[in-house]
Amino acid sequence: MDLRYWPFNVVNENGKPIISVTYKSGTKRFAPEEISSMLLFRIKEMAEAYLGCEVDKAVITVPAYFTDSQRQATRTAGVVAGFQVLRVTNEPTAAALAYSIDKKLKGKKILVYDLGGGTFDVSILIIKDGPVYEVKATAGNTRLGGEDFDNRLVAYFSEDFRKRFNIDITKNPKSLRRLKTAAERVKRFLTSATEATVQVESLYDDIDYVGKISRTVFEELCSDLFYDTLKLIEQALADARLKKNDINRVILVGGSTRIPKIQEILHEYFEGRVSACLNPDEAVAHGAAIQAAILSGEHDVNIRDLHLVDVVPLSLGVETVRGVMYKVIERNTSIPCRRTKDLTTLDDYQNSMTIEVFEGERTLTKDNSLLGVFDLHGIPPAPRGVAKVDVTFDIDANGILSVTARDRSTGNCKSITIKNENRVSQLQIGKMIADAETYREEDRENQRRLECRNQLETYIYDVKNRAENSHELGEEERMQIKKECESPVEWLDDNGDCLREEFERKMTELMRQWSVIMQKLCGGSLRHIAKRQRSESYQVPEENEFAIEDILE
Q1: Band of the pLDDT at 90, cuts 50, 70, 90?
Q2: pTM value?
Q3: Topology at the third CATH level for domain 312-423
């Protein structure tokens, strides 16, 4: 991902990535979980408006290659948004569920090719009796997706702009963001056309930019990225101990799979066994809805016997002597799962043990991702290698990890929560929920404020238009009203960010000022106009309501 194209900054705060945005002429910082929760809350509102009932439970999907920390963060975002998160499930698994819900696919092997806006996943599933959907392998790249194709187009058009105008816009964030928006439209257009034109007015210092690109050139720009996805397909096939000819059907998921060259590459690689029967934008959501129905106890005949068996995307283990990764759970192990390994002391009469939990495939832990560290105390002193500690890794159906340590010599068993510093504490979650509610109320008030502003603006132009087209007024009166309308229009331009009450007071002031002329223009319809202004989605305060009634009387 290229940070230059983002309309916000990412800063390091105690080792955590924090989103920094401009808010109300100042700077506001948000954890990634908070940003995600805002999106989820908006989706919650849309679902409730469509269904006409409260929606408080959800299945949330994530890229198959999400780490344990990323899954935990996603679950936190769901809680902050007001959901009881029933399951965090992998996107390719959900898509496979949507694809095969009404098909007879017992014994078939399905490969899900999921290329979205920012991530790429490939998963291989086998459909068994039950039916049971068993994920055999998964691979992916959390930094490969449609945005990377957009960035290649931005680089192409930026270079074209430099050659034509001798200006480098790559150091200008505003120009880059506008060009990226246009580049995404070009990419979409090239899915159905062989040539596209990009047009951006005043891209830099009032210079209008117009550029052209063919589908062939676009494919050349992104060719290496397209073929990188094949490498991950081959990795998944190797992990599943399958050959490409063993795959019965390939499912395309994600908006980027609409790119003709990607479809061509896959059709050639799999000799035509590619299905385009699902809407790539909706397939994952469809599968998540099916999973939610299953977990909610829905008794529909099509889903009551379905069972999903997902896998661990990355190996999990602990650090041993000289920083070697000792794997407790291998990647692509079916979940939920539970594995136990024994550890021993390295020093004589050692009475405690520090256990570091890692995630990744590298031999040395320094090259993997640290999930958490904990200390186990109270080990009976003994020569090195005598004391034994059983460490159990337990992964639930959501792919969430917990660790238990058992001192074998005493039989004492203790459950230990991994204290991952990159995770959000319960106290922080509570604060996020409170902050989110504050912002929601601010959003509602801002919406009411904008509605007041729009109604005031509509009223001003309504008066102006009625005066200009009136046969009851003389030319001098029409010109006078037109001139009087200029001042409130300028006031709106200068005070567009003022409080709702200011717009309401301005409305009252103008209605008093123009009451006589509007009576002349509209007669008895003036009361109707004022009533209509008040009957929209906000309530005029009582003092202004009486003032308006006084004007009408």
Answers
A1: confident
A2: 0.65
A3: Substrate Binding Domain Of DNAk; Chain A, domain 1 (2.60.34)
Where do the DSSP E strands lie in 14-141? Answer: 16-23, 26-30, 57-62, 84-90, 109-115, 120-128, 132-141
Pairing of strands 9-13, 16-23: antiparallel
User: Measured between alpha carbons, how far is residue 515 from residues 452, 457, 504, 550 in Å?
Assistant: 19, 17, 16, 10
Mean pLDDT along residues 461-486: 82
Give me the residues paired with residue 61 across strands.
89
Burial class (CB in 10 A: 0-12, 13-18, 19+), 84: exposed
Share of the chain above pLDDT 90, in %: 33
CATH number for the segment(s) 428-552: 1.20.1270.10
The answer on pLDDT for 376 being more than 90 is no
Superfamily, domain 146-224: ATPase, substrate binding domain, subdomain 4 (3.90.640.10)
- What is the C-alpha end-to-end distance of the chain, expressed in Å? 63
Of 502, 490, 438, 540, which is closest to residue 24 (Cα–Cα)? 438
Q: Which residues neighbour 156 within 8 Å (Cβ) at sequence distance 6 or greater? A: 213, 217, 221
